[in-house]
Amino acid sequence: xxxxxxxxxxxxxxxxxxxxxxxxxxxxxxxxxxxxxxxxxxxxxxxxxxxxxxxxxxxxxxxxxxxxxxxxxxxxxxxxxxxxxxxxxxxxxxxxxxxxxxxxxxxxxxxxxxxxxxxxxxxxxxxxxxxxxxxxxxxxxxxxxxxxxxxxxxxxxxxxxxxxxxxxxxxxxxxxxxxxxxxxxxxxxxxxxxxxxxxxxxxxxxxxxxxxxxxxxxxxxxxxxxxxxxxxxxxxxxxxxxxxxxxxxxxxxxxxxxxxxxxxxxxxxxxxxxxxxxxxxxxxxxxxxxxxxxxxxxxxxxxxxxxxxxxxxxxxxxxxxxxxxxxxxxxxxxxxxxxxxxxxxxxxxxxxxxxxxxxxxxxxxxxxxxxxxxxxxxxxxx
Length: 382
Known about the structure:
The chain is mainly alpha-helical. The protein folds into three domains: 15-70, Double Stranded RNA Binding Domain (2-Layer Sandwich); 81-182, DNA polymerase, domain 1 (Orthogonal Bundle), CATH 1.10.150.130; 197-368, Intergrase catalytic core (hpI Integrase, Chain A). Helices cover 47% and strands 8% of the residues. It is built from 14 helices and six strands. The chain has helices at 45-72, 75-81, 85-101, 107-124, 134-146, 150-170, 200-208, 214-225, 229-234, 273-281, 308-321, 336-347, 352-356, 361-368; strands at residues 15-20, 25-31, 38-42, 240-241, 244-248, 257-261. It has a three-stranded antiparallel β-sheet, with helices on one face. Strand 4 (240-241) and strand 5 (244-248) form a beta hairpin. Helix 4 packs across helix 6 and helix 5 packs antiparallel against helix 6 (150-170). The longest helix is centred in the N-terminal third of the chain and has 28 residues, at 45-72. It starts with 14 loop residues before the first strand and ends in a 14-residue tail after the last helix.
């Protein structure tokens, strides 16, 4: 005779059920494999299964880490295999945090590399640092590329190259051992559209129709100075002195310093930098910042600094309201004003590498590339 069907079958390790005959309810318990003790999880089976699976994963990882610590203390093994990748990555995170403290790396770079380091820990953390090969890393990069995340794959590769460079310096691997450098650099095709000079009047008109004032001010400041959004948001009225606007570029951690003459005028506008600064000052709101809050709906925020993300959102609204369209899959962001400024100033003979604060001409050329958004006019010889 066949066994009667069971309605409470459980196939999750360490999860047990108990029937209370008095109430007819089924209670679930989790058994900790380390101590043998049981812990009640209530009567909700779905919740109990979810908790048990998570606990199994966490305890398993804890045991792996414990065993790996013991193995890392095995001197003969470490000499042959090297310390575990996780152990080295934990040291690497301390190294880059110290570099941040010494102003050698920006907070953004450090946070990004920590995220990338944690991915390496999750994927290859138990592998000896000397046992990681190019194929293992290339497989991970290919997975990201297959999911359409080529930019992420490229960033991971850059961070992991640095991880092994630091391991070389620390003597944890041989001087010529860096499997990340042998992988192919993922090709990234930039899909974001470029702003065209013919787009400028429509953007300005759309900005003037917005309820807030700072989007228009940001457009004029951006096209005149070519500054990044974070630097624009940091501009203060006290930065204006001796007929110049003095700026310390945040991406260069303040090491690159530019002084823009107040007479500077973008060929796209009829306003000098001095005129634009005066326009920012004429809001009637007391503020330290050129770009500041002026909204009536939140009086307590008036005069506060505009955050970069807020600037991007405001640009998106005025861009979408402008009626403009682009052939590219992704429309231009506020950062494209920087590229447009470079192309306009370059046509008028300006040294745009200096204007944008770039250390290399190669970086400036990236901004000069119109990505097919504009025609090149052929002129006959004179």
